[in-house]
Design goal:
mainly alpha, 72% helix, 12 helices, globular
Length: 241
């Protein structure tokens, strides 16, 4: 199918999420908690060198119904990959997931060093939401006028209110991920791709190519109109004489 060839990263990632969710559903509650504990990208794991948890933590859907979370990933990541290509689309998702995790856990690490209350080095930190929020924010920031004017402020307000009410680490990470998505939308890496897709090569309305001496080349229809004017002028002259 054409959409499978266009969305290889989304297809593989959604397949991994479904496989992980299916395996966890077949396990006991104790085994599920153990799996999440060992794959949480928290301060303790990063301190002892378990950096691979930055990736494996994104294989668990947490905090929302599993099928709803996977459907959200399929829709948002699929749209990004369709619009920008596999490298850029999945790159934005991975950038948001990893960078937001490092920033939030880095803040938690600084709180731990300063012996501030509330610093948890072994916190549960898994899920798809950081990458999802960053990608959605990037799509809105590069979308149409209504998406930028209404969609992006609405998402910002929703995540900010959630952070103010719950004051959880994940809620703070969502706000960080949103900022990362907007920042990514301003990068030339994505804006150049947007310009290329907006005006493909050979599109109607593209400026005419120049000849070797710098004069613009006439389009065939312009040449045709010129011939018509020439013939009309000569006919008129002949009739006047």
């Amino acid at each position: 199918m054409n959409w499978l060839r266009r969305l290889p990263a989304t297809t593989v990632y959604v397949g991994l999420l479904l496989a992980t969710a299916g395996w966890m559903a077949s396990q006991s509650v104790r085994e599920q908690a153990r799996f999440i504990r060992h794959n949480s990208s928290n301060v303790h794991h990063l301190e002892v060198g378990k950096w691979w948890t930055l990736l494996t933590s994104g294989l668990v859907v947490d905090g929302v119904p599993v099928l709803l979370g996977i459907a959200a990933v399929a829709g948002v990541l699929g749209l990004a990959e369709w619009r920008w290509g596999t490298l850029r689309g999945f790159g934005v998702f991975l950038f948001g997931h990893v960078t937001a995790t490092l920033l939030t856990e880095g803040a938690m690490w600084l709180m731990k060093l300063a012996h501030l209350p509330g610093a948890l080095s072994r916190a549960r930190d898994v899920g798809i939401s950081y990458g999802l929020v960053a990608t959605a924010a990037c799509l809105l920031a590069l979308g149409g006028h209504r998406a930028r004017r209404y969609g992006l402020p609405a998402l910002t307000l929703l995540l900010t209110v959630a952070w103010a009410v719950d004051q959880e680490l994940a809620d703070a990470g969502h706000v960080v991920a949103l900022g990362l998505g907007v920042l990514g939308a301003r990068s030339p890496w994505l804006r150049s791709r947007r310009r290329v897709r907006a005006r493909p090569s050979g599109a109607r309305g593209a400026p005419p190519r120049n000849l070797g001496d710098g004069a613009p080349a006439l389009r065939p229809e312009a040449l045709g109109r010129g011939e018509d004017r020439c013939c009309t002028s000569s006919d008129s002259s002949a009739s006047a004489w």
